[in-house]
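Appendix B. One record, verbatim.
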Amino acid sequence: MSWFEGRTAVVTGGGTAGIGRATAARLATEGAHVFISGRREAELDEAVGVIGPNVTAVPGDITVPADLDRLYAAVADRGRGLDVLVANAAAASFATLDTIAEEEFYRIFDVNVKGTLFTVRKALPLLNEGSSVVVTGSTTADRGVASMGAYSASKAAVRSLVRTWAVELADRGIRVNAVTPGPTDTSGVTELVGAENVEAYKSAQGAQMLLGRVARPDEVAAAITFLASPESSFVLGAELYVDGGANQV
């Protein structure tokens, strides 16, 4: 029997063709019933069609408390609590120190920090003993990357929160960890750099990787699945890099 048979999972940012959808598909294949959320209904509907009957889509924005309440009300209605929470939804943009607008700074932190915090906060009443929370980080939090200062800082803040939550929730048997991908081939990259630039961007990023390519979403999903499962039962407050070694050597 799979570790996730009969379990309930939530994956935010699960509609777009990337890490969230790949994770939802992997967990559903492993037997979990997965609730996915995202702002774009069309993408959520597409994800449901691709993943199959073990997934339920709940449209919503993680920065809107009422939308999170709606998501968790749907989870509560299933009557089995919550075993896996993957806080994956995020926002990114390119802007240097001298060009970033105040509104853009607030948007990045509103989604990546506040949205992630309340995604986890509002799940607390539902999280079963022994459940797992996995937060998606970024290798940019460790390095100085031009034009990504706000995004990198927001991901560094999230990494810090993972450590704190690991301490605060340990007495409930809830494990909190971070997965930290390097450059990954997702639809979010296309949105960030533009369809006309995406192949050149991936090629340039891949050339900097020891393996000569960017990651596939399913490779990151495999790491998240490990952290979500009892196979990582003694892993707590950790950061698992899925970066092809880029930040390690």
